[in-house]
């Protein structure tokens, strides 16, 4: 909650101001008007002086003088001087028409409320009174101050003005009120539940002012975090999307963040939403662009055809659609990376990286955009070089490799290493086309001899080692300089890699055993366990290639390593090899490949959050209480997959008035049908878009005064084939489905319909599969009170349902 | 949502902090102690002074912030703009020597947070001047808190448009405007066109358009162009009465092709991609590529664009480097200005790198001033005015000191800085700007073009 107010480290009274070596700044420094600096040294009694000043406040006529007095008080407060003694005087000053003064008094209040709850309580009345002020600005400010006091005992005072503010004529007050609700929620959850603001908030999604709507979405998302965020249905989503051009650059994000949770009713609607959002990609706000990308990808996910789906064979698959999305967003993303500030470029590069992983190949032709600029900060350079490796294809690989080799000699060590590694990764993934592997291997071999830059030669050795694992046939290319390189590579990781290579290339290097023998003889001088382990592995490998030469030295090495107690791992390994060799089994070892596809999929779900930047799941860096798992809206849709949908109007293309806020809620076309989301009380018809055909939402389920009619074990000839078929045939009788499902032994339907008189019927139907039978529970609600007439209606209903289900 | 915003000065002291939520305060003190123990003593002084000045912090929160400061100021690697300490993420950016930091404990959209921080700095610039610094921040403490509260409520960005904020927060450099009626005021604060208020009046109606381009070039040592690209932006300064509707046109290839019937016009420029200020009607742009908008009052950035093809490079550089043994090296450089002789480039600075062990240099140059600057390890050649189509030469003979351990010279690229007024490297030019207003007043329009070097580099 907002209130630990100003914390500054202004010079503390009595102590020297920081950075001036104890000498106070000379008065009247040039460029610093004297009357501007309130932070001069204070003496005791200044607070009393202030009190004197405040007493004259009421009689003071000059507005600026008044403001100056207030500023002085606030300045003292930010210095950390306790001016809470002035509370009463400040309270008197609250009665003013000057907003600036008023704001400062509120600031003062919020700052001392927590430490002086009794005093704060005194001023509540004034604040509540200000909430009814004629000036909307004052109402808003007072409300914000009231909600920011952070005193649980004040809840009873706040809830009433809050409720009133939600109906205020001015959007500024409403928007502040909505945020106030959230503050109240965090202050006292029980009181909040009692006040039941939820339904009002859902209603306010229709507010004509976009900033109010934005706050409503944000607040609902946070309040409903436990149930996966704000309840969402088609009507709400379409309503918001139709107004999306009215939202401010930050407000638009709240709507865009909802889209990934929405499941389009059918393919056509999905594409309509994408078209509607397309212009957002041209905004200069990077946040909005990335949010749009996420929305697109999620729609592609929902709309695309999956393997095993029995839909039209011509419709595009999920992967195709995602590729199309990435193709579309490539240009805007690249522009933003090229023209944004460093911080944003860094963030966007991470997103680009993830998209490249998702759809390899699409960014390839833009590889020049990822060339490192001399002026880029290091972290951007690193990200770019890592991405460059992923953009290699047979056409681009030569350019990329030569660019990378330019980078290995830079001053930045890490940069050199990453460049070498990236180069190797092109070879390992074999993305460079024919001959690339050999040419990269040659370059890496040349780097082994770069004595001037030890970290590069070491990294080259490590890269070669991984390269050999992937492409064993290149051993002939690289073998020659290995024994020589072993002499001058000093870094342990490089040394270990070289020793490994010597073992692997034992066939083509004549002197390999003798080089290794020297290392074994100086075993005592090796400090790094990695090198020791590599030595052991290499010697064993070499033993299988050239047993007569290696046998003796292997024996010696095994003795040394089993005696070595510095590393448990090494010791165990040596014993393992020893026993393995004694029983002489087949020396092939399984190679495990690191597979992170699962992580990538998980990260894709959290696109446009910090997850991408840190490259780990939210659970790993967000505390449990802050972890929000947004869920998709419930998947039932009132529309059949291939039915017609109410078109989404794209405002703004031709209709200027629409775009600039004159559009009222009633301009929004009513969607064909409405269901309310089951995530919260079913009573709320979110937008009240009743349709002539459908009843205006299902009636309350909790109503029990009408008695239920239960019909069990009706004989049926067949069982229904699928829930969809039944739903559509029920739909023709104007009986609507709330939920349905198939279990191994039975089908279940929850239905509702409306009679002419306005009454409702709630129906639960359970159809057994074998033997085919039907059990119905029908609950009438409202409408005609004549029992016989009602009974007649119910009988008719039963007949209708029976026909739909299988007769 | 953002839990806290703070502003730190260069020493890592907290100048301003505004806590929007209290979840950043629950932290173990351990992380702090470990961090401090690992760092050196000069830092401990800093923490002490910070500790003294941040008495108002709740204990845990303070610990948190300090460990961030440790990371920021003491890690030798350039830290990334996002740091995660104890499950709290710190996102930060710089203005002069101040750090603007946002703290959050939830899984936010990082781009949003950065956009907010930038917007915040933009707002402060509008209030305190382009180059606002520590002391101006301190002198306007109340104003800054007012802005902090108005732009963000409970961790969510609220109203960040400068023009609207100006209406009801008029401290600082911003001149108080005629106070509008409360009715109109709140409409403005929350209205759809939050970038312009109604009832603006000017005696003379004027629009200034600046087309600013920066050329990025990278040429390999063999003379191939590795990358050439122009990023441009169109900046406007509007002084217009009322709520005028503007229509703006560049020589965009797609538009020109549509308009020209025969082969009478020059081909337009192929703009690869562009983004716009939020006042531009994007739907209309997508439909027929016209740029229409109701402009904000005063300065703003209308659009940014990127052009990759057919870049007119303003300068051509032909370097030749010869290393003769270990003690001598000679560099020859020819620079040709590739733009029309009517124009000229200003502030041309060419930095030719030389090896670190250079002891003597003999420089011959046709014009401008060239000098060996050891601290930059480069010959810096400055030319104040470089006429179009001109050619000039630089030849340098270097004597190198022998070093104990010879290390190959890494040969950094030659770097060029320049400005060419009234020239666009992409070829973009403004075709028209029409202003429609009910009163039908006359508008004066002024257009300027400047091309600057972004990263203009030639490898040797």
Automatic annotation (TrEMBL), chain A:
Subcellular location: Endomembrane system
Highest taxon, organism lineage: Eukaryota
Sorted UniProt keywords: Membrane, Protein transport, Transport
GO cellular component, one term: endomembrane system
Biased composition (Basic and acidic residues): 33-43
Record bears the keyword Protein transport: yes
Region (Disordered) residue spans: 1-43
Skewed-composition ranges (Low complexity): 1-12
Entry-linked SUPFAM superfamilies: ARM repeat
All copies of domain Clathrin/coatomer adaptor adaptin-like N-terminal, residue ranges: 47-584
Domain Beta-adaptin appendage C-terminal subdomain: 714-780
GO BP annotation list: protein transport
Biased composition (Pro residues): 13-30
Family: Belongs to the adaptor complexes large subunit family.
PANTHER family per the UniProt record, alphabetical: ADAPTOR COMPLEX SUBUNIT BETA FAMILY MEMBER
Protein name as catalogued: AP complex subunit beta
Automatic annotation (TrEMBL), chain B:
Localization, UniProt: Cell membrane; Membrane, Coated pit
InterPro entries to which the protein is assigned, alphabetical: Adaptor_comp_med_subunit (IPR050431), AP2_Mu_C_sf (IPR036168), AP2_Mu_N (IPR043532), Clathrin_mu (IPR001392), Clathrin_mu_CS (IPR018240), Longin-like_dom_sf (IPR011012), MHD (IPR028565), Mu2_C (IPR043512)
GO cellular component: clathrin adaptor complex; clathrin-coated pit; plasma membrane
Transmembrane segments: 61-78
Membrane topology: Peripheral membrane protein
Ranges where the MHD domain occurs: 204-459
PANTHER family attached to this UniProt entry: AP COMPLEX SUBUNIT MU
Family the UniProt entry places it in: Belongs to the adaptor complexes medium subunit family.
Protein name in UniProt: MHD domain-containing protein
Taxonomic lineage from the root: Eukaryota, Sar, Stramenopiles, Ochrophyta, Bacillariophyta
């Amino acid at each position: 909650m907002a209130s630990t107010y100003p914390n500054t480290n202004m010079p503390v009274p009595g102590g020297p101001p920081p950075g001036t070596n104890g000498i106070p700044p000379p008065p009247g420094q040039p460029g610093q008007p004297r009357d501007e600096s309130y932070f001069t040294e204070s003496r005791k009694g200044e607070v009393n002086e202030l009190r004197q000043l405040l007493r004259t406040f009421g009689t003071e006529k000059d507005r600026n003088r008044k403001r100056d007095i207030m500023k002085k008080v606030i300045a003292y407060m930010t210095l950390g001087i306790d001016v809470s003694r002035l509370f009463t005087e400040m309270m008197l000053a609250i009665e003013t028409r000057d907003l600036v003064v008023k704001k400062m008094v509120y600031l003062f209040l919020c700052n001392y409320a927590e430490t002086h709850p009794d005093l704060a309580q005194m001023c509540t009345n004034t604040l509540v009174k200000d909430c009814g002020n004629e000036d909307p600005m004052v109402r808003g400010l007072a409300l914000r101050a009231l909600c920011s006091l952070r005193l649980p005992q004040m809840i009873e005072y706040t809830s009433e003005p809050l409720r009133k503010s939600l109906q205020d004529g001015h959007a500024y007050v409403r928007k502040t009120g909505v945020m106030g609700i959230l503050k109240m929620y965090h202050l006292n959850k029980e009181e909040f539940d009692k006040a039941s603001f939820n339904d009002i908030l859902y209603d306010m999604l229709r507010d004509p002012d976009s900033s109010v709507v934005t706050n409503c979405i944000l607040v609902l998302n946070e309040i409903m975090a436990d149930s996966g965020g704000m309840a969402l249905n088609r009507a709400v989503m379409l309503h918001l999307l139709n107004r999306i051009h009215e939202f401010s650059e930050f407000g638009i994000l709240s709507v865009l963040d909802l889209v990934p949770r929405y499941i389009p009713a059918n393919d056509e609607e999905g594409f309509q939403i994408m078209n509607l959002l397309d212009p957002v990609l041209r905004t200069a706000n990077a946040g909005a662009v990335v949010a749009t990308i996420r929305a697109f990808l999620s729609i592609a996910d929902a709309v695309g055809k999956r393997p095993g789906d029995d839909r039209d064979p011509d419709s595009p698959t999920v992967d195709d659609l995602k590729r199309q999305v990435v193709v579309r967003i490539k240009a805007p993303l690249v522009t933003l990376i090229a023209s944004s500030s460093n911080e944003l470029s860094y963030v966007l590069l991470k997103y680009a990286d993830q998209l490249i992983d998702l759809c390899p190949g699409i960014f390839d032709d833009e590889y020049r955009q990822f060339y490192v600029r001399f002026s880029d900060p290091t972290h951007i350079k690193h990200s770019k070089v890592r991405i460059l490796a992923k953009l290699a294809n047979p056409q681009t690989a030569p350019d990329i490799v030569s660019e990378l080799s330019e980078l290995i000699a830079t001053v930045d060590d890490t940069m050199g290493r990453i460049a070498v590694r990236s180069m190797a990764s092109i070879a390992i993934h074999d993305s460079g086309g024919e001959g690339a592997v050999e040419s990269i291997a040659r370059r890496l071999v040349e780097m082994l001899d770069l004595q001037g830059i030890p970290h590069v030669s070491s990294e080259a050795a490590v890269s070669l080692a991984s390269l050999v694992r992937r492409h064993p046939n290149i051993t002939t290319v690289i073998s020659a300089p290995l024994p020589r390189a072993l002499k001058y590579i000093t870094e342990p990781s490089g040394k270990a890699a070289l020793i490994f290579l010597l073992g692997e290339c034992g066939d083509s290097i004549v002197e390999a055993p003798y080089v290794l023998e020297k290392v074994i003889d100086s075993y005592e001088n090796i400090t790094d366990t990695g090198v020791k382990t590599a030595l052991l592995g290499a010697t064993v490998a070499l033993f299988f290639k050239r047993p007569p030469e290696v046998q003796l030295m292997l024996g010696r090495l095994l003795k040394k390593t089993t005696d070595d107690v510095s590393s448990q791992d090494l010791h165990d390994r040596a014993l393992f090899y020893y026993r393995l060799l004694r029983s002489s089994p087949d020396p092939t070892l399984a190679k495990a490949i690191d597979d992170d596809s699962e992580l990538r999929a998980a990260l894709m779900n959290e696109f446009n959050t910090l997850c991408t930047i840190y490259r780990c799941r939210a659970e790993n860096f967000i505390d449990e209480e802050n972890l929000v798992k947004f869920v998709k809206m419930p998947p039932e849709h009132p529309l059949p997959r291939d039915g017609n949908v109410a078109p989404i109007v794209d405002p703004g293309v031709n209709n200027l008035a629409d775009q600039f806020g004159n559009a009222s809620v009633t301009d929004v076309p009513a969607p064909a049908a409405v269901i309310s989301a089951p995530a919260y009380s079913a009573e709320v018809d979110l937008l009240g878009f009743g349709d002539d055909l459908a009843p205006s939402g299902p009636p309350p389920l909790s109503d029990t005064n009408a008695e239920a009619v239960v019909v069990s074990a009706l004989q049926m000839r067949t069982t229904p084939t699928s829930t969809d078929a039944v739903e559509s045939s029920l739909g023709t009788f104007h009986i609507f489905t709330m939920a349905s499902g198939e279990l191994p032994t039975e089908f279940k339907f929850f239905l509702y319909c409306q009679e002419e008189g306005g009454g409702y019927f709630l129906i639960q139907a359970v159809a057994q599969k074998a033997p085919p039978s039907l059990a119905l529970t029908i609950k009438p609600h409202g409408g005609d009170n004549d029992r016989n007439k009602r009974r007649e209606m119910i009988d008719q209903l039963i007949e209708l349902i029976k026909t739909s289900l299988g007769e | 949502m953002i839990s806290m915003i703070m502003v730190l000065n260069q020493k890592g002291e907290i100048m301003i902090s505004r806590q929007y939520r209290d979840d950043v305060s629950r932290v173990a003190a351990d992380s702090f102690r470990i961090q401090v123990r690992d760092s050196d003593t000069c830092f401990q002084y800093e923490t002490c002074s910070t500790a003294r000045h941040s008495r108002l912090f709740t204990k845990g929160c303070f610990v948190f912030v300090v460990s961030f400061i440790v990371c920021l100021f003491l890690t030798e690697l350039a830290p990334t703009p996002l740091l995660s300490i104890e499950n709290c993420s710190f996102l930060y950016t710089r203005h002069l020597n101040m750090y603007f930091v946002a703290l959050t404990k939830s899984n936010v959209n990082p781009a949003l947070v950065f956009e907010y921080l930038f917007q915040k700095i933009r707002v402060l610039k509008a209030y305190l001047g382009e180059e606002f610094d520590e002391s101006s921040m301190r002198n306007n403490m109340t104003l800054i808190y007012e802005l902090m509260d108005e732009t963000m409520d409970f961790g969510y960005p609220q109203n960040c448009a400068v023009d609207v904020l100006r209406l009801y927060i008029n401290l600082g450099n911003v001149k108080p405007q005629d106070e509008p009626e409360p009715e109109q005021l709140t409409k403005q604060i929350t209205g759809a066109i939050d970038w312009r208020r109604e009832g603006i009046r000017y005696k003379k109606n004027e629009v200034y358009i600046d087309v600013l381009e920066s050329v990025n070039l990278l040429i390999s040592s063999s003379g191939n162009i590795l990358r050439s690209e122009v990023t441009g932006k169109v900046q406007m300064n509007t002084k217009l009465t009322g709520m005028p509707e503007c229509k703006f046109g560049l020589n965009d290839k797609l538009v020109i092709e549509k308009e020209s019937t025969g082969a009478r016009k020059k081909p337009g420029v192929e703009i690869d991609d562009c983004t716009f200020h939020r006042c531009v009607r994007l739907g209309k742009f997508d439909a027929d590529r016209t740029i229409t908008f109701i402009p904000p009052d005063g300065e703003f950035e209308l659009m940014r664009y990127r052009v990759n093809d057919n870049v007119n490079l303003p300068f051509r550089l032909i370097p030749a480097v010869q290393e003769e043994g270990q003690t001598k090296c000679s560099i020859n450089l020819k620079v040709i200005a590739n733009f029309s002789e009517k124009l000229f480039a200003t502030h041309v600075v060419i930095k030719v790198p030389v090896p670190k062990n250079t002891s003597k240099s003999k420089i011959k140059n046709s014009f401008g001033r060239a000098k060996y600057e050891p601290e930059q390890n480069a010959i810096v050649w400055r030319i104040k005015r470089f006429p179009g189509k001109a050619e000039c030469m630089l030849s340098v003979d270097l004597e190198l000191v022998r070093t104990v351990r010879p290390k190959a010279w890494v040969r950094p690229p030659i770097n060029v800085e320049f400005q060419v007024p009234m020239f666009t490297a992409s070829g973009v030019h403004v075709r028209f700007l029409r202003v429609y207003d009910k009163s039908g007043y006359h508008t004066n329009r002024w257009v300027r073009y400047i091309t600057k070097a972004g990263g203009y580099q030639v490898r040797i």
